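FAQ
Q: What does a multi-component entry look like?
A: The components come first, one per line:
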Amino acid sequence: DAKTTQPPSMDCAEGRAANLPCNHSTISGNEYVYWYRQIHSQGPQYIIHGLKNNETNEMASLIITEDRKSSTLILPHATLRDTAVYYCIVRTNFGNEKLTFGTGTRLTIIP
Amino acid sequence: NAGVMQNPRHLVRRRGQEARLRCSPMKGHSHVYWYRQLPEEGLKFMVYLQKENIIDESGMPKERFSAEFPKEGPSILRIQQVVRGDSAAYFCASSQGSESPLHFGNGTRLTVT
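Then the predicted structure of the entire assembly, as tokens:
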């Protein structure tokens, strides 16, 4: 069972920031938050992950609340190519822990 | 750097035949994961392997399916006596270790006729 809750769909205007929320209220202290996306018919693409501090890379920013029960993925300037299903996943970073995908958020970027 | 390579991209098999799906992990990655995605459904974990060892096969059907990751060469997912319900996209992912992100290939689309 996925340990996260995401809205099933969202729209965002091209050029604006896309903010994708994720609830993970049962997250454990040793679990990281991972974000992946899947563009139609392609393999999932790793975006970013974090434990408790906010993280930023060339693709996105990850904001994790202080209690770690929720997080937000931010795509700062959305383009049409960002249209995809976005998955928020919690995972321990030790041992043999697979990624368990939920249903994700279908993000549509509107021209 | 080459990503995770899967081949073939598309595979058509008749019912009862065998399907072999190959996955070459990224350079330096010794952990391989296989996932299956049925049409209009989510990604489901099948099996996790390290070189020459199956670590977790909790998502693998008990019959007809097997996986290996030999010391040399790609990881192979083998499906014997395929049925129509096996039609799906099969994705492979690799990582450097359990503390590293998984990186996925673009999958093999199996169609059973």
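Q: Is there any commentary attached?
A: Sometimes. For this entry: The first strand of chain A starts at residue 9 and ends at 13.
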